[in-house]
Amino acid sequence: MIDDNLIQYFRSIPEPRLSSGFSAQLRERLDTARRPVRRSPVSVVLRLWAPRAYWIAAIAIGLKVVRPPMFALEQMAAMAALGVVGALALQRALRPTTLTRILRDALR
Amino acid sequence: MTDEDAPLVKTFLATGRVEDFEVLVERHRRNVFRIAIAVIGHGGESLAEDVAQEVFLRVYRRLHTFEHRSRFATWLYRLTYNCALDSLRSRRARPEVALAFVPAIHSGTLRDPFRDDALADCISQLPDGQRTAVHLHYWLGHTSAEIAGMLGVQPGTAKLWIFRARQLLARCLARRGVRS
Fold first, then answer.
1. Do residue B81 and residue B126 come from a single domain?
2. Which residues of A touch B111 (CB under 8 A)?
3. How many separate domains does chain B show?
4. What are the domain boundaries of chain A?
5. Segments in chain A forming alpha helices (H)
6. Which of A5, A106, A108 sits opposite B119 (nearest CB)?
7. Are residues B66 and B138 in the same domain?
């Protein structure tokens, strides 16, 4: 009988048990999950300015390569500055809202 | 339908205190681990423990998404079942970290190792629901009603899974020339 086979087979396998450190390890992970991630000021500045510097350099290089002859250097500088301000404004406008953060957390 | 966890869930959502959450963990950790190990099977104790930890972490972060449409335990156990299945599938997809085959302990009884290995292999080939139900019933000693509560299905479904699993196992053993 298959029923007897199963009973005898599983009788020969020890019953699984949670390890004694389960609760302590989970407690540690819960504490970490609760604690906000602390970043050093240098890292915060780097995280903020690295992408900005990348785009500023990219725009500057692009402008240097395809610079139209009718613009003077001052005009180019003014346009670049305007571009930076525009990019910053765009970045601020596209910052994730509370709803975006909740949806992102839910998907995580 | 009363949910004995509802007051605790509400308290935790209001206070956010880990201590409140830990009461829920204490109450359900045994069943969460048992569901995970029933899905993964013998030899996957360490993975099942990881799954249990991951489930509680997810619940801790996402309890606000629980809509009280079912009992908290039903929601938790369903999450556990799905997480364990995901872990098992990703483990199977990576043969280099596949679960080590742990043979049954034959000492003390007159067991046939060939039959036991064939049975273990046949069990691993059962559909997920049936394999989990077989493990919960025969290995961990749960009744059909308890299995239904743990897996969020009707008691009749749990009974049917065990019945169908027995039929499939008998056929599988017969194909291998093992008398059941």
1. no
2. 8-9, 12
3. 2
4. 39-108
5. 2-11, 22-34, 41-65, 73-93, 98-107
6. A5
7. no
User: Domain range for residue B157?
Assistant: 105-180
Cα B140 from Cα B128, distance rounded (Å): 17
Interface of A with B in 3-62 (CB under 8 A): 3, 5-16, 18-19, 22-23, 25-27, 29-31, 33-34
ipTM above 0.90, yes or no: no
**CATH number of residue B77's parent domain:** 1.10.1740.10
**Which of B29, B61, B105 minimises the CB distance to A33?**
B61
B38 & B69 share domain:
yes
Q: Where are the beta strands (DSSP E) in A42-94?
A: none
The verdict on B98 and B150 lying in the same domain is: no
Taking only the tens place, the pLDDT of each residue in B130-172 is 999 999 999 999 999 999 999 989 999 999 999 999 999 999 9
Distance from CA of B170 to the nearest CA of A (A): 6
Residue in chain A nearest B50 by alpha carbon: A22
Residue among B147, B51, B167 nearest B99 (CA):
B51
Interface test with B, best of A1, A7, A11, A13 (most B CBs within 10 A): A13
Whether residues B85 and B8 share a domain: the answer is: yes
Q: What residues contact residue B13 under an 8 Å CB cut-off, 6+ apart?
A: B63, B64
Per-residue pLDDT of chain A in tens (108 residues, 90 and over written 9): 788 889 989 988 888 999 999 999 999 988 888 765 567 788 878 888 888 899 899 988 887 887 666 778 888 899 889 999 998 998 888 877 777 766 776 665
Tell me how far apart the terminal alpha carbons of chain A are, to the nearest angstrom: 47
